[in-house]
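Working notes for the structural subgroup meeting. M.R. asked for a predicted model of this chain before we commit to crystallization trials. I am recording the input and output together here so anyone reviewing the notebook later can reproduce the run.

Input as submitted:
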Amino acid sequence: MTSQVSSPAEQADEASEALVGGQRAPRTDRAGAGDKEIRRLDRVIIRFAGDSGDGMQLTGDRFTSETASFGNDLSTLPNFPAEIRAPAGTLPGVSSFQLHFADHDILTPGDAPDVLVAMNPAALRANIDDVPRGAEIIVNTDEFTKRPMAKVGYHTSPLEDGSLEGYRVHPVPLTTLTVEALKEFGLSRKEAERSKNMFALGLLSWMYHRPTENTEAFLRRKFARKPQIAEANVAAFRAGWNFGETTEDFAVSYEVAPATHAFPPGTYRNISGNLALSYGLIAASRQADLPLYLGSYPITPASDILHELSRHKNFGVRTFQAEDEIAGIGAALGAAFGGSLAVTTTSGPGVALKSETIGLAVSLELPLLVVDIQRGGPSTGLPTKTEQADLLQAMYGRNGEAPVPVVAPRTPADCFDAALEAARIALTYRTPVFLLSDGYLANGSEPWKIPEPDELPDLRVRFATGPNHELADGTEVFWPYKRDPETLARPWAVPGTPGLEHRIGGIEKQDGTGNISYDPANHDHMVRTRQAKTDNITVPDLTVDDPDHARTLVLGWGSTYGPITAAVRRLRNDEQAIAQAHLRHLNPFPGNLGDILARYDKVIIPEMNLGQLATLIRAKYLTDTHSHTQVNGMPFKAEQLATALKEAIDA
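Returned structure, recorded in token form:
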């Protein structure tokens, strides 16, 4: 279990209960458990696990929302099957949601759960190897009958054969208790059983003193068209809370104080990576004073961005769900030609289909954001699992010389800022830009400080309005490929502007005029110019965290930031000297990266692939990097990564 700490100055009050409408309802102004023992913890990791139809994602999401409103720092890891409805009660059908929350700043969803809520035998079997001895396991005993256990290879009940010795097991007949609590609603047994996740949520809310009022309000909103179902879920939620309050099996409840010192002052909300990215795109369009256009085809785990942006027509957002990936990016590129901030969203398989049109965008030199929410591959691969699989595809996955800038966020909240940065580059330099998020960031969540409008960058662009070149005879004309001497960006002319008609297409252009050209010297010039434009993009220098003047540097990119930083903290707590740097810009690299690499004897690069960044670093800087790789569809665990880094330091 987690370590105990003394009570901080700001602690939530002990809870009491009130009688409301004949039902005992938990109050939200006090947290506690009557005369039961209360232990104070600095952090807790909870994993809800059950069948994919048991509502584990909803349960975890509600617990997370209440935890965020309470003021804890948090990080989440949803994990669910790729199948729409995997076979019930089987290992492939297990869905889980892990939440790590604390009274201090944290970086990952945690390595191992302190509490496992297992709704059936499959959930227990699929997750027990991750649960450390001494942890608490809450088991729905109603599901541990012969047939469900046989489905997952249990020949005897693990609740009775001693295999769970060493754990603190709480056998709870969740289904029976839920059905009993909902008798007055006249629901069928099947309908009543569906609320057992709310019973479990109520129990855990009591156990960890979570607020409850917002969850009840949420349930009434969610089932507003079915008030009987809404009140049944509220009743199940209250029954779970009261069960924890009254049963002797739960003699202890726990307090995790708000993380009052973890955050700078401001207004915060809990946010997932895909939601933050969506908001970042909207903010970019407003800061650029351009309409936002999304041309997309649904694909896991990127579809949430399409869903979210479709809700914001009031901000000038237009979304187009195309018939395929190629049509989606084609429409987006057309919108870019028409003067919109154009975006297309996808995952790895979709990037492969979009590659020719990305190359066309490079040739046309139009701003276009290609948002790739990476997942495991190859082919359709692992749709709901995470991987940093597409870096080399983003860098080189096109025919010919077609350089594209690459930006990668490092946390769910950072997806907002990364979207603004990708838009800045695209609009300033007239180029497509890759934004490489992944499934871990997309579905995970953390607190996000909502920025003030005056903190956002000014992204406004100046469209071409008239001729920009004078011929030898004095005639003024418009040259679509006459470049800004500083950025090498060509002018952006909105179609329909009088006198600015120009040729467009994928055949190589003549420098300046944009006319079709097969001249070898011109092609050489245009290829080198497009490369120089990308190479000369202004990006911030890389910062290094090196308080002890270490000889070893751990270099990361993207979503490995949390596990790497957590691992580095562990090593420094053990008096190991290690430096850390994390890349947001992967093309071009920061200008000082070469000098930084040269300062260290060893450079270790952890990646959720087979060493793609390490390959790029070796090729460009001739640095003998050490790869530490993982491709199991899950993020790194901080403890395992710390061990690997220690071994590399000592080697």
